[in-house]
Design goal:
Layout (H helix, E strand, L loop, with lengths): L21 H12 L3 H24 L2 H14 L4 H32 L3 H5 L5 H17 L3 H14 L9 H28 L3 H26 L9 H12 L14 H22 L9
Helix pairs in contact: 1-4, 1-6, 2-4, 2-7, 4-6, 4-8, 4-9, 6-8, 7-8, 8-9, 8-10, 8-11, 10-11
Amino acid sequence: MSIYKHHYRAYTGRVTPIWTRIFALARYGLAEAWSTKITAVLFVICLIPPVGFLFTIYLSNNPSARLLMGTVGTRVLAIDGSFFLRVLTIQSWLAMALASCIAPRLITLDIVDNALPILLSHSISRFGYVLGKYAALFATLSTVTWVPCLLLFAYQGYASPVPWAASNLRIGVGMLAGALIWIALISLLGLALSSWVKWRGVATGVIFAVILVPAGVGAIVTGVLHTKWGLLLNVPVMMSYLWERLLDVHNRIDNALQLPTMAIVTMLALGCCLSMVMLNTRIRAREVVRG
């Protein structure tokens, strides 16, 4: 049968809602992120500290263990805001290592293989494309940050012989808020930097460099000029201040070096906005034609 005798008709079947199409990108992004053994190894490493903290909570609420350890055990096994601050800090920096491994795999391959024109030619916008990749990274990082933190909080509330969760609800809310802010920052930063670097290994190093190099510069500025405002370049210090305030933990840092909460939030928001500008500049449905 000749091809010109075929009768072509428009598709009249069920159309997938627009708001659900990003989940296809998120699903394939997760599959790509977990396609290497390095991701699995890092994920297992990220789950080791929560197991140790879980054992600590068990010992803290075990009368026999506290009796054997005496007064030293009372201080070591204290479950309070400082304890959960350590949990949040450790898990957040482990999530940073995991994000530096996953983010380049989510977006670098699409740019290197010139797949963006094909992807964006479908009924997916640039915003939907970035949102799908972000959702995949957000879901992975959540499993090693706020999810184990809140599970430990819930277990402490269950194991404590006295009512504990209601009187310490701010700790749980603070951990959730602190983890979400951190995930938003490193996810946008990781995707933005990965979109500008063609090699995955280099992209991983660049993500760490963008966090650590300005921190060193900020420390130098603070020491030379004797001003606390240089710490606004130091992301680890800013996040430590913010986490302490969210969990209502008294810090031991000199008051002269304390940064206003609004200044910290402003700097973090500027970092997220800059990352979005970088993504908007790089994620475009254009094809490069070489003559």
